[in-house]
Amino acid sequence: MRAIVQAAQAQAWAKHHHAHIAAVISNRPDAKGLAFARTTGIPTQVIDHTDYTHRDAFDAALQSAIDAYQPQLVVLAGFMRILGSQFVAHYAGRLINIHPSLLPAFTGLQTHERALAMGCRFAGATVHRVTPVLDEGEILAQAVVPVLSDDNPASLAARVLTQEHLIYPAAIQKLLPR
After folding, report:
1. Where does residue 160 rank: exposed (0-12), middle (13-18), buried (19+ CB within 10 A)?
2. What does the mean pLDDT of the chain come to?
3. What letter does residue 50 receive in the DSSP assignment?
4. Distance between CA atoms of 115 and 119, rounded to whole angstroms?
């Protein structure tokens, strides 16, 4: 999220694309992105998933909070919850996410551990549209990093993250209206 905000500021998205980051909304009150967003003047909000007994109720509250900003694009960044099909359908075509693997390989969690266990020579990250099927939406951008002989999950994750910080803002910028 920080990389996206910094890219938006550095590239003056509002000036060139008539776009801005309307808000940062998190399901975790302690999310570091909230504090960073506040320092940049971006409105923040917390919809804590632990306050809801059913996923549908949480999704509805989150959707209501997002819709108050009337976004043209909804960007998931560090959001580690599966969203329901009604929520995803509501934002069809304008809900995007980033995943720390070269999709369609290694959907879900423990991507780096699985890539190392399988002996992959390359790993990476994928920006994709969100669909009701986890990590299977249209691929918008990918970045590749080599898997080094001395890699462990943490070292591989760190190298992939540097690429995520580059490709996610670039993919977003391509989707912005002119």
Report:
1. buried
2. 94
3. G
4. 6
| Dist. CA 135–CA 144, nearest whole Å | 17
CA distances 14 to 25, 30, 49, 173, Å, are 20, 28, 31, 11
Statement: residue 88 has pLDDT above 80: yes
3-state secondary structure of 169: helix
- What pLDDT, on a 0 to 100 scale, did the predictor assign at position 140? 98
> What is the residue extent of each domain of the chain?
2-175
Give the number of other Cβ atoms within 10 Å of residue 21's Cβ.
22
Helix (H, G, I), strand (E, B) or coil at 42: coil
Q: Residue 16 — pLDDT band, cuts 50, 70, 90?
A: low
Cis peptide before 43 (omega within 30 of 0): no
The yes-or-no answer on residue 99 being catalytic is: yes
- Exactly one of 20, 49, 90, 99 is catalytic; which is it? 99
Tokens linked to 142 = 């990918």
The pLDDT tens digits of the residues spanning 119-148 come to 999 999 999 999 999 999 999 999 999 999
| Residue given tokens 């992959």 in the structure block | 120
CATH of 2-175, one of 3.30.300.30, 3.40.50.10190, 3.40.50.170, 3.90.1150.10: 3.40.50.170
